[in-house]
Known about the structure:
alpha/beta, elongated, about 400 residues
Amino acid sequence: MRIVIAPDKFKGSLSAPDVARHLETGLRSATAGRPETLEVLRIPVADGGEGTLDAAVGSGFTRRRAVVSGPTGQPLTAEFAVRGREAVIEMAAASGLAVLPPSAVSRHDGGRPGSASARTASSLGTGELIRAALDAGCRQIILGVGGSANTDGGAGVLQGLGARLLDAAGNELPLGGAALADLATIDFSGFDTRLEESRFVLASDVDNPLLGPEGAAAIFGPQKGATPADVGELDAALANFVQVLAAEIGPRAVKAANASGAGAAGGVGYAAIAALAASRRPGIDVVLEFTRLAERLAGADLVITGEGSLDEQSLLGKTPMGVARAAAGAGLPVLAVCGRTTLSAEQQRGSGFRQVYPLTAMESNVEICIAEAGRLLEELGQHIGVHLTDSAYTKEPLNV
């Protein structure tokens, strides 16, 4: 029997490669000694946000490292992935909340970033990672966004690629979104010329515009420590950024501010669309394409997918649904594993899952589920392995 394990991460607990590895361990322990051969293919996947880099490396990309500027300007070592002339960049590795220095978060507020960080965090390191990919010879760049610390409209990305952001006196602006209120001109004379021969894909499920009540500052700023006053200040600063950029590159800068996905990653989506001519695509579609999941399902008998929380948000295009659609296209049954699920039995069936296995059904204590997810997944893999010949796993899959 050939089984494809294609999960996303269990956020806060295990990476996607670890989820797949623990499931395989359980499957093999259950089938040890059987006469039939068990072949397992592990394909870690993601939805374009955190975990996208792991998915790329698990699909034949080579992991590279570069020293870049973190969200507050402090240097850090960030990873990206290369395969030939193609690169995958996970912006959270350089500009994410998870890489904020301890000084930027409050120990008395659950480790949340503070107001100062919300106003000054930059996407500069993401631009520097793109430049590192260009140095590696890449000209097709997938930019996976999500988990960002910045609300700077992607101004930092442009700075990392050689643009200079200047105030009315000709002085370079400090980093961060709030400083864009003083932006007067953008000097593109040092902008990396290799960008002209490069193609960008913005992998994002966020469809918010850059500005206004549904924009980057209003919707996502509070998650990054922005106060109500900060939100208003950041939104006005981003609006000024749009007008100054339009003076430099033309009306497409204004049009891009209203584009679906411009508000992604603190507005990095905006800079990617306006200045890098990026095409926005759903993250799961991009990842399934570069992992060649559909092609690698050939000859399989069963697919197992999953993520930490299988809920209503999952139904809107998260990883398990993308994998389920690919499995249905190949005529294969698909099982889902997760830390917890809020989906009804009807929703589970309608999503195409033959069975859904939450770890909370094995261990009701959520903290234990998170801390011991590896052990529980191995036990779950054993259970699945014992029942591999059940008709529930092998009959024709439902349509999705």
